[in-house]
Amino acid sequence: MKKHKFIFVVGGVMSGVGKGIACASIGKILQSRGFRINPIKIDPYLNVDAGTMNPKEHGEVFVLSSGLECDQDMGNYERFLDVELLSENYMTNGMVFKTVIDRERSLGYNGKCVEPLFHIVEESLSRIQASVKKSGADITIVEIGGTVGEYQNALFVEAARTMKLRNPNDVIFVLVSYLPIPHMIGEMKTKPTQYAIRTMNSYGVNPDIIIARAERPLDEQRKRKIADFGNIPYQHIISAPDADTIYEVPLNFEKFGLDDIILRLLHQKSKIKSDMIGWRKMVQKAKSASKDVSIAIIGKYFKTGDYVLSDVYISVIESLKHAAYLLDRNPKIEWLDSLDFENQEQSLARLDTFNGVLVPGGFGSRGIEGKIKAIQYVREHAIPYFGLCYGMQLALIEYARHCLGIEDANTTEVNRRTKNAVVDILPEQIEKIAVHDYGASMRLGAYPAVLKKSTIAYDAYSGQKDGRWSVGGKLTEPYTIHERHRHRYEVNPEYIAQFEKGGVIFSGTSPDRVLMEIMELPRNTHPFFIGTQFHPEFTGSLLHPHPLFTAFVEACIARQDM
Ligand code: GLN
Description:
- The chain is of the alpha/beta class.
- The protein folds into two domains: 5-280, P-loop containing nucleotide triphosphate hydrolases (Rossmann fold); 289-560, Class I glutamine amidotransferase (GATase) domain (Rossmann fold, 3-Layer(aba) Sandwich).
- Helices cover 36% and strands 21% of the residues.
- The chain contains 19 helices and 23 strands.
- Helix 17 crosses helix 19.
- The model has no long low-confidence stretch (mean pLDDT 94).
């Protein structure tokens, strides 16, 4: 049987330098050589999944088709590799510890002393193997979250070491490190990377390749220094300066021959010559776009201290980029805090200066009235609008209040006792909340929706001739798509008829027509106004921009020409 190959990727010096993008890019260039890639992300936190975390803590919560709530890097992998990942592609310390402790409680270890440094390591390894088996891939790339030297991820590095010990020819280590250029001295420093290598050595492993992240390219002298110090061939030190777009990173790696280096280290013969034509074309489009398209995102999770945390909406941003690149536009995205509309620090007329407005998903009551005001403004001023999940629910609340005369319309998420709950809790959620069952308990993952003909949604999806978003790839009626969800509330069925009578089109519904999945306004009353109960931002990729994002950006461009 052909031996499976593993690439373990660890970070050095600090987080946030693009380890996930490096993994996705390595995957991409190996995929372009004909190998099937299985990316795994390991997160060192004790949360069993990412679902219970405030996005300010750890960035966006990405949702897989299976419904698993996980790290945003999984989104990068899917967007780069165009694969649908499984729950097995993700693990956290919490997941691993929980399994081991539950097994111990049921006498699964036959009276043995259960210890982190064996049982946790073995459980991590068996999860990796389970993922390999399910994926049918040739090469697995395991990204170990955090930086090397932390207590939190040490057991995973130990698992990687064990794997290498057992399969010396099938495992390599990549260190993604950072080389700072302190402003005061203006010189690139290698010392932190040297320490990171030494820390890796203390775990009994040495990096085979170093991805040297920095603002600027690495020069020969520093490359030599790292190579000599780290006992690594000079050619295996890859300079990875900041790129104009993350999608350029695989092309930069390819330029250095990183694909050949990795394949040689893994004793693999390349099956085909690299085929990155489509990818290169999109990157070219991104870099050469001369016109802008300006979009406001109205949210509330992006301020952290004095900094803006755009990671919280990363899939939304990337989806906007994909669509803009496809349409030869440079996306200019601006963050507007809904609270500023609420307390009138921001004038609503500001919205006129944008080509389109998007309200992404969210939770709770803070900033909600500000979002509703903004939605009312864009509806009344014919500004293209795209609402995602909460962005759809709030659009309906706004419509009910101002077009249907239901002045106190609300969602029970904001006001539990509201008389007119046009958005209400999903029946199956009531019990879960009553017993504080908040882990992985929302309506999660991929569900089908049937589309109504002659609507914005229908036209956008049915324009995808490869049937990419339709269930079973089928393009026949009833045209049924599947998209990923993450919500506890829904359009209250008691108000559907009233909405429809008042001019709202529900262009997507669950097959039994109980759940309203897409709402829109007729094209003769507003140029582009659409909301989805699901999250389309989780299913597009650079090579396959999501059709609804493309339709939205098209409408934004049309507004420019008005
Ligand atoms: N808070 C809303 C709900 O739970 C919307 C969720 C979201 O935007 N992801 O239904």
